[in-house]
Amino acid sequence: MMQTSRCVRYFLVRLALTGYCELLVDVEEETALEYRVLTDPLHRYVVSQIDMALRKNNYKRKKGEEDFLHLQKPLFVTFLIIYLIILIGNLIILATICYNSRLHTPMYFFLANLSFLDITYTSTTFPKMLVNFFLLKTPVSLTACLVQLYFFMCFACVEFTLLTAMAYDRYVAICIPLRYMVIMNKVTCLQLSAGAWIVGFLDPIAHTVLFSQLSFCGPNEINHFFCDITSILRLSCSSTHIIETLTYVIASVVLLNMFVLTLTSYIYIISAILKIRSSDGRRKTFSTCTSHLTVVLLLYGAISIMYVRPRSTYSQNYNKIYSLLYIALVPLCNPFIYSLKNKELKNFLTLKGLQRVKLMT
After folding, report:
1. 336: exposed, middle or buried (C-beta count within 10 Å: 0-12, 13-18, 19+)?
2. What is the pTM of this model?
3. Euclidean distance between the first and the last CA atom of the chain, given in angstroms as a whole number
4. What sign does the CA torsion over 93, 97, 103, 104 have?
């Protein structure tokens, strides 16, 4: 089936000027429907059916907007609270690590990077999303959309790379404990951290350049909370084959390698823990990496739910819900996971809280 523009006006002009044409129109789930116009009566019938379908689609869209108005304020308040919790929680972790000299270790150095990353990561999507919830519809330029997309992909890549570096840190601490401080010195930590950020900033450049070359001649409304890759590709009337291929290649090279390295680290970690004879020793050793392992499982689980599922279940509305797993749920859980599961950080925060209570009384 021939791939053409989704611009409805373009199709109507073709119908008006020609007695024989092939027409591809997207009125509901953006699936192509083919019409062959052979005679004038059939020509008029096709035009009437298209007009009816478009009116029906516009009615459903208006009805959906009216239904959304009832959820507008609750959604705004809910996501505002989530955003504030993410900001405050990660700022507390950053301040705690900087304030307490006993936490100036490689593990907490990477945790501080992760907390700063969660602040920047959510700040690329939440402010604009909150404005959209508050005002229902707000215009965004193509340049602003590409900037948001670049930083979103950038910080997402940094998170995967940083979690891989943290997995390596846990591997060295548990499997090679006597050489831990020699291997994970300040220079190594800085190199791993800088490498994660450099890879993250370089990775989306090709995507952004290719996206800027796309042509948009159809509907100009992004059916999403933010400038998501799939949502932008749906609006383009030019070929997106190169971008889609590049996405799969980069996902295979970067994300798959990060997953394999993280998985390999934990295979060695679990093997080393199982060799410990005492159950108390196994429990204490495993507790040093439970926070990181929980975050890894949560992030990769959210990505798997979003992208690794049957194609028949793909729907733009469901995609918007699934995307909240990694743009809201994962950053929201990170401060709680590291503050509740990390014994040293939890004890320090509890101690400071008790001292403030005593000072107030």
Report:
1. exposed
2. 0.75
3. 76
4. positive
Distance CA 312, CA 325 (A): 20
How many CA atoms, within 13 angstroms, populate the side-chain half-sphere of residue 129? Answer: 25
Question: What is the DSSP annotation of 145-190?
Answer: HHHHHHHHHHHHHHHHHHHHHHHHHHHHHHHSGGGHHHHT-HHHHH
pLDDT in tens, the chain (361 residues): 334 444 444 444 444 444 333 333 443 344 334 444 444 555 555 556 556 655 555 544 554 455 555 667 888 888 999 999 999 999 988 988 888 888 889 999 999 999 999 999 999 989 888 888 777 667 777 888 889 889 998 999 999 999 999 999 999 999 999 999 999 999 999 999 999 999 999 988 988 888 888 887 766 777 777 887 877 887 888 788 888 888 888 877 888 899 999 999 999 999 999 998 888 888 888 888 888 888 898 888 887 777 666 555 566 666 777 778 778 888 888 888 887 666 666 666 665 554 554 444 5
On whether the CB atoms of residues 110 and 169 are closer than 8 A, the answer is: yes
Q: DSSP string of 309-355?
A: S-GGG--HHHHHHHHHIIIIIHHHHHHHHHHHH-HHHHHHHHHHHHH
Q: How far apart are CA 233 and CA 216, in angstroms?
A: 9
46 touches 37 (CB < 8 A): yes
